[in-house]
Every structure is written in structure tokens, then in C-alpha cells.
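Q: What residues go here?
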């Protein structure tokens, strides 16, 4: 059969997952309605001036429950119609008919983004399995460092002279040289024989020489991230006619361009969004499709461009298709993954769910986007007046490729390109410039990862990164582009819910702070904020007495203090079952999703723990940061994640231990809440047993125990560990003092 009649891709709805998800949604919704009914009914029963502390405590807990219920409701949109896709790149047309692709690689700071790692990403992009005359690679250096430029020239020489010809000759799958020489190339029929082994050794030797030259450049240069410099644009692979005539054979290679845009302290540069909005590629190559990569995210599958074209060249979906998103996957994830660095929930659950609607959001890296979708209208002819409108007021295009212009002078950040309102420019651009304008996207998750990067391996980087993401999400939620307000008329209801959940995700800090403090404080003071245990009311009975009598009556009658703890089965409050079902239903669904996506029970525990840690720290600080910026009290800032590997941090990560070397501002909330729950659990259980109110306090006791169990690594870090990653004693002492003050003042208020 002719390839032109065969589909380039197939979409498969995950029917079993969809049935499970919808059934769970129905049951969980019924339980939440019953829970809300109970709270409202009990509020009117207990709302008395004499019962103000209990009423106020229950009201705070109910507020947290409402927020969690609202977030859960928004999240059900992802689970309505999850899909996965299969591509057939072998059915694509001939190379001559394939469209051109521009590759944007973004870097900012060589001190945090190792130069050799960046060059490996550049080389892997140059070596993509795509027609070289239709591939153009741009490295955007926001740091303006000469080290990066010089290293790029070395990378070009190595790629052109050794690496790319070697990959083409033997069909090498792993096109990142560092990854290739560290691992084993498998499933390559052509990668055998003495000739291959000899060539491999030659290329390896040249790669070692290349590494040495790059390291020498770093050692001989002072790395200074320049925030005040002119634009630099340099085409690395320029070969003069004389040089070309002297060569026996000039291999055709992709275009390689170094770009460092103009930056001035007095003008906002808009971080990554500003770097991606440069005019350089539009004037040099102007390819219809763009691949965006982070500097540490190398091309692991050389056929990724062809896989993306299976969607972009499909006449049925191409007119409305804005971009193809590949998942972010990482080569340094440990078996335990204590920080959930693989972001399983997003790339295995959420994005597959959105793919069944209008498609996933732009995820920062690893996406092939249509230039027409990004810039609103295609610019086919280089016309001065038209380019002024789209790319800034200048008639000297070549000289102004990287020049900075104020936003009011051109349409970037307002209607075209990557938008500037939020530091999460990918999410914001997806919302406003893609899906709300009718574009769709697809999610392609092949068996072999298309791109591999370096995941975060220490708590500090995880929390700093999540704080930045949280701040950007809340910025959008508080703006006129709030998805729940801006989206309903422009997107489907389910797609709007997906965007809404991502925008409001940081607000998880509100219910988690509430559930980690209020029930515990009430537990210590004998105040019940949940229904009593429906199965078992444990009371202190005297031997030989009527079960309806308690120990006090026996003392009054002169009977000795021989007593025991007994069980009385009652059915006094069926709403205990409702709260239990909601809790167990949520955990069970999470476990099911983790196990069905290849995780383990240990993965589930780690995901629960890091979600709780993020909620009470970076989600809180990110939300406050966004509110302060909204009020004009703070300027936006960006700190790239440190990608330099620390030996001790890597060792702790690989052994499954949390590295608590982070700022006291991020660490103190974890320690304080853990101490509060330990004290509340011990004191609350003791009080409940003595007063015979264990059934009334059962849920609060269990909640404290659950938090203490999840917080065990914090307890271990305070008391048991002696390594560098332990919690400093000064933080522990300070946290104990704050915890005692909170519990004392709280008890005083509750007993007024």
C-alpha cells in the first residue's frame, strides 16, 4: 500500500482508565456532597457565642476542605479522556519535501549550567536525523559569556569533523557524545565489526580532546554573567570560498548560530520569554517550525523531528495544530527519587489527560511549535514595513538582530510570541496565544525518550524551582487572564478546568497549613472538629460493672480501681464513614495512578511527602511573591536551577535521603509543623485515653499520625543523622521555640 494513504499517527483512548476515573469521580463527588452537608448542618447546630472556639476551628477546617474539594473538582478534567499516540515516521515524504526546522537552545549562566553539558546539547541537535540543509541550530546565551561562544566554536569543529559523520555512517541512536560514550549503544546492526570499533575509538579520542579544550577555555576565562552588553550574533559554520575549494569534500551541515541579545540594566529583558522572542531566526532561516530546548535537555532520539512532523504534516489536524509537546525525562533519576524529580504526575497523568481535550500546555522545553501559531500570521516576504510591525523599528536588520526594544515599540509580549506577564511564560503563552486562539496541541510520549535532561537532586533546587513556578502560576490566576474567567468563552469547559487547576495549584498551601495545625491544636485541648468513630467508642470500665457505667461512678460507689479499656459498638454518627471514605478514596486513586504508570508504593510515599513539603513551603512563598508583585512591592526575578553536580548531594539522593541543606526560610516550616504534630499526637492520645474521648478524637489522632509518618525524614534529620545533609541544630532549636509559642497561644485562645 502506498505510504500516502496510510496514517502518519494514531490516537488511542485509554478506555479502562477513563472508566475507572469517571466511576471514581462519581463516588467521590457523592461523598464530598455528604461531607459539605454535614459541615453546614453541624455549623448551624454549634454556632453559639459560648461555643465560639469550636465553631471557629471547625470553620477553618471546613474552609480547607472546600478548597481541596474545589481543586479536586478542577483536576477531574484531566481524567475525563486520557489518550496516548503512536507515530509512523517511516511514512513521511522524502527529505526534499520535509519542512525546515529551527532549534532554539537557551542558556543563561555558565557557572550553574556547565559549558560542556551545554555543548553536548548543541552537538546532539546538530546531529538530529533530519535533512541538514533544513536544520538550523541557534544557541541563545543570555549571559553574554565569551566562554560559551569559544566553546561553541570547538563544538562545531568536533561535530563537523568527527561526530556527525560517525553518527550518519553507523546509524548511531544516541547522538549526545557524552551519553553515548558513558553508556552502551544497543540494537544497532551496523554498530559492529572491526571498522566500527576502530572508528569509535578515533571519535572517542577526538571527543576527549574536545572536552580538554572546553575545560581549558573555562579555566583560562573569568566567568562573568554580563547584564549590560550589546548584541552579538555569529554564524559559527561560515566557510569561505577559498577554504571550501581547498577541502576535498565539504560535508553539508546544519546552520549553527550563536546569539547573545542586548541587555541593559535599565530595561526589562523578560528572562527566557525575551530570549525566545528574538528576531534572529526569522531573518536568517525563518523556518516554519521551531524546536525549543533547555541547555541541559539533549536530543536522545534523533528521529524526534520526524516524529513531530507526523502530526504537523497530517492534513487533517495540521491547520489547527500549534505545537507537539514531548515529555521531559531525565537521565539521573534514582530508584527512590525522593524529590519526585521525574514529575510523574504531570507527564504521565495530566498531559495525557489534556491530550484527549485540546492538548497539553507548552512545557518549557522539548516542543516543536509552528511559527505561524507563535507569531499569529506567517511572514512570507522580508518586507521592511511588515517586519517593523512584528520585530521592532529598525531598517538595519542585520545590525539589530539582537537589539533590545521597549515593549511599546512592537507587538512582542502583547499579541505575538512568548508573553511576558508571568515567569511561567510557557503556561501563559499556551493559554492566551495558543488554546484560547483556537490552536490545538498533541502530546507525543514515545518508548524511547526524545529528550533527556538533568533532574533536580537536592531539596534546595526543588523548592527554589517550585517557588518560581508557583509565583508565575499565581500571577496568572490573579490577572485578567485567570483561566476560569478568560477561558470559558474561548476554550472547552474541560480545557478551562485544566488550566484553572494549574493556575490555582499553589493554593494547596492554604488547606495543608490548616490541616497541619488546627486539628492538632484542638486535639491537645480536647476539641473535636470531626465526627466520632462510628465503630468503636473506647471507655474505661470497672471489672464486673455494667458497661454503661464509667470509672467515675465506680469510684463513687466505693468499688476499687480495678479497670480495663472496653469497646462499645455504636452507630451514632455515620458521617465518620464519609470522612474516612473521602480520605481513603483520594489516597487509593493516587496509588492506582502511580502503580498504573510504572511507579511503586515507595514512589507513592515519596510523591505524597514532597507534595506536602512543597505545599507548606514553596507554594506558600510563591503565592506571597506573586501577591507582592501584583501590589507593586517586588520586582520579578529569575534564578536558573543549578545544574552543577555536587558529589555529596548526589550520594544522598541516590541513597534515598533528603538533603536538608537549604535556607532557614524554606526549612523552618517543615520542622515546625513536624514538631507540632509530634507533640499533638503524643499529648492528644494521652488526653483522649484519660478522658475517655478517644472515639471523638480518632480522626484528629490519625491525621497527626499520618503527618508524623510522612514527616519521618524530618525527624530523622533533626535527631538521628550526622551527615552534611542533616537539619542544623540551630534550626531545630528555633523551630521548637516557635512550635511551643504557637501551641501555648493557641491553647490560650481556645480556652478563653
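A:
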Amino acid at each position: 500500500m502506498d505510504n500516502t494513504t496510510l496514517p502518519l499517527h494514531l490516537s488511542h483512548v485509554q478506555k479502562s482508565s477513563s472508566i475507572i476515573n469517571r466511576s471514581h469521580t462519581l463516588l467521590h463527588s457523592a461523598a464530598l456532597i455528604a461531607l459539605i452537608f454535614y459541615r453546614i448542618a453541624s455549623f448551624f447546630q454549634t454556632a453559639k457565642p459560648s461555643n465560639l472556639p469550636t465553631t471557629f476551628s471547625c470553620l477553618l477546617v471546613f474552609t480547607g476542605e472546600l478548597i481541596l474539594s474545589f481543586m479536586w473538582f478542577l483536576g477531574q478534567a484531566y481524567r475525563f479522556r486520557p489518550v496516548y499516540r503512536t507515530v509512523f515516521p517511516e511514512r513521511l515524504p522524502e527529505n526534499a519535501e520535509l519542512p525546515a526546522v529551527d532549534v532554539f537552545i537557551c542558556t543563561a549562566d555558565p557557572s550553574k549550567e556547565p559549558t560542556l553539558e551545554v555543548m553536548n546539547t548543541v552537538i546532539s541537535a546538530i546531529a538530529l536525523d533530519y535533512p541538514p540543509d533544513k536544520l538550523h541550530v541557534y544557541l541563545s546565551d543570555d549571559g553574554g559569556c565569551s566562554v560559551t561562544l569559544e566553546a561553541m566554536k570547538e563544538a562545531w569543529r568536533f561535530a563537523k569533523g568527527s561526530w556527525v559523520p560517525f553518527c550518519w555512517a553507523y546509524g548511531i541512536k544516541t547522538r549526545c557524545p557524552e551519553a553515548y560514550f558513558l553508556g552502551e549503544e544497543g540494537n544497532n546492526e551496523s554498530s559492529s565489526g572491526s571498522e566500527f570499533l576502530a572508528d569509535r575509538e578515533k571519535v572517542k579520542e577526538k571527543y576527549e580532546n574536545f572536552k580538554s579544550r572546553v575545560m581549558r577555555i573555562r579555566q583560562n576565562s573569568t566567568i562573568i554573567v554580563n547584564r549590560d552588553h550589546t548584541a552579538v550574533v555569529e554564524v559559527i559554520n561560515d566557510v569561505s570560498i577559498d577554504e571550501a575549494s581547498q577541502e576535498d569534500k565539504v560535508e553539508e551541515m546544519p546552520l549553527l548560530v550563536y546569539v547573545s541579545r542586548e541587555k541593559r540594566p535599565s530595561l526589562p529583558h523578560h528572562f527566557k520569554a525575551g530570549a525566545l522572542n528574538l528576531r534572529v531566526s526569522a531573518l536568517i532561516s525563518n523556518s516554519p517550525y521551531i524546536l525549543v530546548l533547555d541547555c541541559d535537555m539533549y536530543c536522545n532520539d534523533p528521529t524526534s523531528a520526524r516524529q513531530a512532523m507526523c502530526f504537523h504534516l497530517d492534513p487533517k489536524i495540521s491547520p489547527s495544530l500549534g505545537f507537539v509537546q514531548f515529555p521531559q525525562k531525565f537521565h539521573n533519576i534514582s530508584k527512590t527519587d525522593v524529590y519526585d524529580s521525574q514529575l510523574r504526575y504531570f507527564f504521565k497523568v495530566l498531559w495525557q489527560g489534556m491530550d484527549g481535550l485540546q492538548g497539553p500546555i507548552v512545557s518549557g522545553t522539548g516542543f516543536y511549535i509552528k511559527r505561524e501559531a507563535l507569531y499569529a500570521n506567517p511572514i512570507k516576504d522580508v518586507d521592511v514595513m511588515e517586519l517593523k510591525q512584528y520585530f521592532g523599528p529598525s531598517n538595519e536588520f542585520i545590525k539589530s538582530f539582537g537589539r533590545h526594544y521597549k515593549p511599546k515599540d512592537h507587538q512582542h509580549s502583547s499579541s505575538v510570541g512568548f508573553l511576558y506577564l508571568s515567569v511561567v511564560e510557557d503556561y501563559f503563552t499556551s493559554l492566551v496565544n495558543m488554546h484560547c486562539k483556537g490552536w490545538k496541541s498533541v502530546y507525543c510520549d514515545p518508548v524511547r525518550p526524545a529528550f533527556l535532561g538533568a533532574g533536580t537532586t537536592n531539596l534546595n533546587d526543588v523548592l527554589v524551582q517550585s517557588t518560581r513556578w508557583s509565583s508565575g502560576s499565581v500571577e496568572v490566576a490573579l490577572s485578567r487572564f485567570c483561566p476560569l474567567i478568560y477561558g470559558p468563552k474561548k476554550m472547552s469547559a474541560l480545557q478551562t478546568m485544566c488550566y484553572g487547576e494549574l493556575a490555582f495549584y499553589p493554593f494547596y498551601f492554604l488547606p495543608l497549613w490548616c490541616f497541619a495545625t488546627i486539628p492538632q491544636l484542638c486535639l491537645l485541648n480536647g476539641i473535636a472538629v470531626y465526627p466520632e468513630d462510628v465503630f468503636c467508642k473506647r471507655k474505661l470500665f470497672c471489672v464486673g460493672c455494667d458497661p454503661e457505667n464509667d470509672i467515675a461512678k465506680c469510684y463513687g460507689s466505693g468499688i476499687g480501681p480495678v479497670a480495663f479499656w472496653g469497646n462499645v459498638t455504636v452507630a451514632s454518627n455515620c458521617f465518620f464513614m464519609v470522612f474516612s471514605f473521602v480520605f481513603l478514596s483520594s489516597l487509593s486513586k493516587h496509588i492506582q495512578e502511580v502503580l498504573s504508570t510504572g511507579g511503586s508504593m515507595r514512589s507513592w510515599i515519596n510523591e505524597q511527602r514532597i507534595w506536602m513539603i512543597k505545599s507548606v513551603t514553596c507554594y506558600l512563598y510563591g503565592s506571597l511573591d506573586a501577591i507582592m508583585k501584583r501590589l507593586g512591592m517586588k520586582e520579578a526575578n529569575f534564578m536558573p536551577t543549578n545544574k552543577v553536580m555536587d558529589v555529596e548531594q548526589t550520594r544522598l539522593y541516590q541513597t534515598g535521603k533528603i538533603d536538608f541543606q537549604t535556607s532557614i526560610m524554606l526549612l523552618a516550616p517543615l520542622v515546625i509543623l513536624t514538631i507540632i504534630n509530634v507533640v499533638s499526637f503524643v499529648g492528644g492520645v494521652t488526653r483522649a485515653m484519660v478522658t475517655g474521648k478517644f472515639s471523638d478524637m480518632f480522626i484528629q489522632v490519625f491525621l497527626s499520625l499520618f503527618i508524623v509518618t510522612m514527616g519521618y525524614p524530618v525527624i530523622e534529620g533533626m535527631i538521628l543523622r550526622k551527615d552534611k545533609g542533616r537539619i542544623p541544630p540551630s534550626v531545630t532549636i528555633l523551630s521548637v521555640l516557635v512550635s511551643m509559642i504557637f501551641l501555648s497561644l493557641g491553647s490560650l485562645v481556645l480556652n478563653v
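A: Context that may help when evaluating the design: The CA atoms of residues 59 and 447 lie 49 Å apart. Residues 48-79+493-539+581-751 form one domain.
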